[in-house]
Amino acid sequence: MKYLVIVESPSKCKKIEKYLNDNDDLNIYEVVATMGHITELKSLENIDIKNNFTCKYELIEAKKKNTDAIKKKIKTVDEVIIACDADREGEGISYAICEFFKLSVTKTKRIIFNEITEQAILTAIKNPITINMNLVHAQQTRQILDLIVGFKVTPALWKFVSRNTEHSLSAGRCQTPALRVIYDNQNDINNSPGKQIYNTAGYFTNKNIPFILNKNYETEEEIVDFLEGATTFDHIYTCSQPTKSFRSQPEPFTTSKIQQTASNELHYSPKDTMKICQKLYEAGYITYMRTDSKKYSKEFIDSATSYIKHFYNENYINEKINDLCNNQKELREELKKEPQLENREEEKYKVKKATKKVAKESKVGEEKEVNQKIDAHEAIRPTDISLKELPEETDSKEKRLYKLIWSNTLESCMSKACYYMITASLSGYNNTKFSYTSEQIDFLGWKIIETKKQDDKEKESHYNYLQTLKQNTIMSYKKVISNVLLKDTKMHYTEAKLVNILEENGIGRPSTFSSIVEKIQEREYVKKQDVKGKEILCKDYELDENKEIFEIETKREFGNEKGKLVIQPLGIIVIEFLIKKFDELFNYDFTRQMEDDLDKISKGEKEWHEVCKICNEKIDTFIENLAYDKKIEIKIDDAHVYMIGKHGPVIKCLKDNSFKGIKKDLDIDMYKLENGGYKLEDLIVIEEKPSTTDKKHDGIVLGIYENESVILRKGKFGLYVTWGENSKTLKELGNRPIESIIFEEVEQILKNNEATGNNIVRKINENLSIRKSAKGDYIFFKTQKMKKPSFFNLTGINEDYKTCELDVLKSWIKDKYSVF
């Protein structure tokens, strides 16, 4: 017998093939890859809405060569075994393989494994199952819903907002609610300017320990009164008896949790985290990375327990470690109830059919399927807990992420950390109290792994000292400092926080979180950037040991933020339009309901086409009720409005319908704009028109390029521009009216023209290079999918970008501009 095993990723092939054939001298297994999905729904025309949403899938053109090769191989083997990933998408691809290559859905073997190790692969090959059609229905329903929302709502954005050619506007079933999360947070920020308070600390004892006051005063009068009262007040010292305190071990990694932790601790984006996890999984280092399980297999629990006993001792084993083990009895009963263990008639598996027919299966076959599904329900963990670090030659980012996974996994299997805690206090004027908390480690537990920041050494050093001081005695202060703080302010979200909120609100699933976060940035609705705070003149106060009160004026910035997600003007216009016209479709409850329905479909508890019908009818109702009759415009004055043009924000002159470009690098406050806070001169460059009598300068000044005025002219052969001694024809713009042309579109043409020249300073990869221009060197970025390149400046790089290590340069570009 010869077997062909079909997987998704080509990087798995050699490893899986080796494991299978190492246990068989005949080398009867060959492994090939589909390289992901092989078929697609190209448009709404592929969905027969009136016939229970029957779908017509088409081969992805780029996969034709590969599918032709697989088709030839299928003819040379005795049996095909499908080994796609153990999730909905994997099940959908498995079904597509059967359909496309005309394999039996009910008889073709399907194997599931949670890790690419010899034991896992061999166990899977000995216990094959068949395709779970409930999961297929859930995957295809998700695909249909996404297509319906995208193809029906997105045209409304093009019609009423803009048909932007460079970054096409779009709406999405999960993308838009995610944008709404950022928008709602921005509204909270705008409505929470903050309140100034005085935070006070008294420095007592010979060690000058800062004791924090338990009350924040709000006015200068109140804090001055307090400090004056403190000069004559007797501060009585007390210290509590030590009490035990425990620090719980971290939970096992789910997909969302690893994205959040990697973002917070390693500064990896969710997208990068998932890419690295994919590589680690395919290399056999970690288990499957798309999961919402917080449990480990029994075999791994046994392995981790043995490891902890060997390198530490039994006291370090999590006292509830068995709770981390898959509850196989309950899971077994739950899985046995799933209809896919009963439905086995191929014709009933077709997506266009809604009926079900039950056919009995043997107990042995059912048990195999249950066992494999139990093994697939695991948190992200190392496949071998004894492998603490990856080989030296491994990519540094992969090594760091693996170490994070290894540490978190081992810590989750270890006991709690135990501390002794004391609170030292001093009575304060006006019924207040100064307090200082100190703690000492009793038992490290999971913290012995030392991946987390160690506890404050200074606090620990004060633990014994504070207990030696005499109780109920008067203690004099060394100084009391009261500084202005801003409370009740809101912060922008990090990528990690957004993932957390998506999970809490049921927006998307673990496998889609990173792509959702990435999508709203690709569309330029949201930008990851630093946020400059506001500067406030503060009056701080200090009381010294000589009982003198000093007033200290200082400028202090509040609200500085690094690497946060900030909604852009385009994002605000888009989400406000969608909320106004499609509110129910994109509210959090409806989005969660859709995800819950997909889960029910995957369990056979809901008819998939009914879910599609409800969503489709809702969208059609909203579209029918659209009331706009023109593009969204924001009034600037009686003669001008702000709108989104073909190439970005523009000012439209109502008198002649001409357009003027917005000032370059202007950070527009949409809330200020919508409330009439801008004047025309704030938004555009007011240029003096060149003399029409001077033929040398005849034309329209559009803007500045390479420190020269760009002058638009119309000649015998059409439009062209000049700047300094340079000129360029504008064939790309055709015969458009000269008044309708804005600087930004001309600037893009000039940059594109420049990019094609022999001006490469340093090539980074196929998509990235450093190039030179008259204004200086810049970063050029263009992928095969991009119609036009993007340009970035080199401001802020500390290294010599011409000679530094390529990895250093790549890392800097990626961190600053999120491209690579």
TrEMBL record:
Pfam families: Topoisom_bac, Toprim. PROSITE patterns: TOPO_IA_1, TOPO_IA_2, TOPRIM. Residues 132-623 form the Topo IA-type catalytic domain. The keyword Ion transport does not apply. Keywords: DNA-binding, Isomerase, Topoisomerase. SMART domains: TOP1Ac (SM00437), TOP1Bc (SM00436), TOPRIM (SM00493). One of its GO terms (molecular function) is DNA topoisomerase type I (single strand cut, ATP-independent) activity. It catalyses: ATP-independent breakage of single-stranded DNA, followed by passage and rejoining. Its EC number is 5.6.2.1. One of its GO terms (biological process) is DNA topological change. Residues 2-116 form the Toprim domain. Belongs to the type IA topoisomerase family. This is DNA topoisomerase. It comes from viral metagenome.
